[in-house]
Write a structure and sequence with these properties.
The complex is a heterodimer of chains A (369) and B (520).
Chain A: H1 5-30, E1 36-37, E2 41-44, E3 62-66, E4 99-102, H2 103-114, E5 128-138, H3 148-162, E6 181-190, E7 194-201, H4 208-228, E8 232-239, E9 243-246, H5 248-253, H6 262-276, E10 283-290, H7 297-311, E11 318-323, H8 331-340, E12 346-351, H9 357-365
Parallel strand pairs in A: 7-8, 7-10, 10-11, 11-12
Antiparallel strand pairs in A: 1-2, 2-4, 5-6, 8-9
Helix pairs in contact in A: 2-4, 4-9, 6-7
Chain B: H1 12-27, E1 35-40, H2 42-50, H3 61-75, E2 83-86, E3 91-96, H4 101-120, H5 151-169, H6 171-182, H7 224-227, H8 230-243, H9 257-264, H10 269-290, H11 292-311, H12 317-328, H13 337-353, H14 358-363, H15 367-371, H16 380-390, H17 393-400, H18 403-408, E4 411-417, E5 422-427, H19 430-441, E6 449-456, E7 461-466, H20 475-489, E8 493-499, E9 502-508, E10 513-517
Parallel strand pairs in B: 1-3, 7-8
Antiparallel strand pairs in B: 2-3, 4-5, 6-7, 8-9, 9-10
Helix pairs in contact in B: 1-4, 1-11, 2-3, 4-11, 5-6, 5-10, 6-10, 6-20, 11-13, 13-16, 17-19
Classes of the chains: A alpha/beta (369), B alpha+beta (520).
Domain SpoVR protein-like N-terminal (chain B): 13-444
Domain SpoVR-like C-terminal (chain B): 447-495
Protein name (chain B): SpoVR family protein
Chain lengths: 369, 520
Amino acid sequence: MSLKIDQDHGRFRQIVRGRIRQNLRKYISQGELVGRKGKDLVSIPIPHIDIPRFRYGDKQRGGVGQGDGNPGDPIHGGDEKQPGQGQAGSDAGEHILEVDVTLDELAAILGEELELPDIQDKGKNKISNAHDRYSGIRRVGPESLRHFKRTYREALKRMIASGTFQHDKPVVVPVPDDKRYRSWKTVTEPVANAVIIYMMDVSGSMGDEQKEIVRIESFWIDAWLTKQYKGLESRFIIHDAVAREVDRDTFFHTRESGGTMISSAYKLCSQIIDADYPPDEWNIYPFHFSDGDNWSMDDTLACVDVLKNKVLPRANMFAYGQVESPYGSGQFIKDLREHFGRDERVVTSEIRDKDGIVGSIKDFLGKGK
Amino acid sequence: MSKFALNTALPRYLRAEQERVEAVAREYGLDFFPVIFEILTYDQMNEIAAYGGFPSRYPHWRYGMEYEQLSKSYEYGLSKIYEMVINNNPSYAYLLEGNSLTDQKLVMAHVYAHVDFFKNNFCFRSTDLDQKGNIIDPVRKTSPYDPDRRWIDKMANHGARVARHIERHGINKVEDFIDRCLSLENLIDPWQPFSGRGTTKKGDEEEDEKPIEVPRLRAKEYMESFINPEEYIEAKKKQLARDKPERKVPERPERDVLGFLLDHAPLERWERDVLEVIRDEALYFVPQRQTKIMNEGWAAYWHSKILTEKILDASEIIDYADNNAGVMATAPGRLNPYKVGVELFRYIEDRWNKGRFGREWEECNDLDAKRSWDMRLGLGRQKIFQVRALYNDVTFIDEFLTPDFVLEQKLYTFGFSGRNDRFEIESRQFRDVKEKLLFSLTNFGDPYIRVIDANHQNRGELLLEHQHGGVDLRADYARETLVSLVRCWKRPVAVATRLDNKPVLLRYDGKEHSMTPYKL
């Protein structure tokens, strides 16, 4: 059924998208969007399009509330939406509207903004995996799955309805008909068929600011590739003079000092691919971020060797992002360009500061590989 | 009957319930317009709610924004709209399809109380229309009271008018102007309909064009040209014309800025029409904003009374209680008008039942005596009916909020603590609570803005004044609003206000904003 509101809603969406478009650079660089909530839902605080009026300034913030607590106690959830009854909007809201955008929508907007082409899938069979999820209630089931609260409630309802409930002696006895059981549904989920292997240089010369850039950038890469593939895995490698695999959290929060042997990371990356990701079933995306300050030319040559012979034949592409740092020489990107200048599978990008993130995402994903 | 092409008539079993609820409501003394119930799916409900209850309003993106918010929050299970009721004669009420029967009965009882409130509360008389659909002077009340409130039709007419302008001038141009007008939407005088002057003032204008009379000395006819020589009379006339005090526009400061713009701004015809639509609709929603707490409290009071005393049977009571508790729930940092309203009505009923009012009660200092005070007057019901007719939120809170009530209901004030970067409870003192509550209700928490001078500095500039009551205007918003005013006035506009304790004049001349110190 087509609703009259669709027209107005479409217009609003256009305006909002326009807004996101204009401010997208700002949002990405400020990392305002990185609040990932739940499984795949991101809540971006897009300012409600507030028509400016004569109104009071900030000093008026606050009001009257109801409930427990002493003066000085914080108010929790003051911004939460109130469940329950709502009435037609006779007064304009004072609140900020949080437009929830699913990660999918977000990626679509990103794709639109950066004019990213859709990725050409390698065309593997999609393998699915089944598992059970408890999501419903039924009248029959094993006793071990009995839902006590629901059963009790049914019994109470029945007793009240039939008049056998005694207020002075509130005993509730369920009969078999009252019993309720949890029930499950079998959900099939496609197995991940793309993997991103993030590698990051954590040598002394990579500061917090550089790591923040990597974090934001990897969020957007995740978002885009998740839209392109039904399932997506991420692996994380950090390296200084030696490389090791870590979890996401460690990846973004490790600070180490020491030298830089980039080849160590590439070797580990190659081993991971060997072990877990047969290239005819997986789309493989290695991303490497560094400040470009490798230990020696020898090591750089070792890197080129590993890339050429082990990584590139199996990966969709190899992306190298060089974050500018006050300490790094920035030599590595030049070396890579020298050796792989014509190779389409190698994408290099220099990221000067947070504002450079958008450009580098476009560099990385713009080829549609 | 209903113009919108929705098949929304009530199924028979709900019609039967409606008749039952209606009969009970009448028995209790509620006095309402006829109510037409319609049943909607959730997306129809969200759509109509986004349009503020009117399915055929003029098109505008903000309804789309509202819709997105409503439908998203419904889809994620954050909230749902159980009912909506439109102040119209007959009143329309919308039920949500798929609600349980208990919920539907609750909603019906709730709706009848709302409609009783629409009909009887004095604020809503400002939405009475005349035959041509103009807002009329509501001071005279007819008996029996059956006013014309065909706002559904009126809003649909507005929709058609705006649609016509869009067709002629293009959506972007018209929508842009609507945005400008909406930015001025709150610059109306909520009491203007009660001033007895009609919606826009006409008629004073002929008065001032009387020819100037020069007083003549008495003289015989043949002496006239000597005693009152023509040259002297002419000179005097000129002098009088020069000295005549410049007629000030407006004569008195004018709160109805929108009305003032309609009367005096050099608007094109379609612009004037759009502005008139915005102003009429803003005035329509005024009474609902003035009585939010009372209206919801009144409806909650009655749905609970009607349902628990007459309608529900034992098997439904748990569902009812569950739902009712959801409606009455209070969230931190937010005042639930349903809860405060219903508690205050019950509190008043209890006080008047027990005779806890009047001089004797006020002067009694014996806590124990007060606690057991019961004169068995039984005046409670009568009193709350009177209150629902004669008060609005401001006077309701001002008169009936007592220290006992604040304590009992655990009311507090909260504010933003810059030090801790969070909202905190500030006080539980009666004075503080009442002050803050009244502040937020007075003029709907908006600043008072008035037109002072339409010919400021003799340059045709518009001067407004913000009556500073202790809180500054939000400066960036004020600047944007000035842009909207210039769009209508087409000459520079300034507003006199105070920022950081200094009187300043914020001015926009169509190109640049300026801020200068100012002395009124």
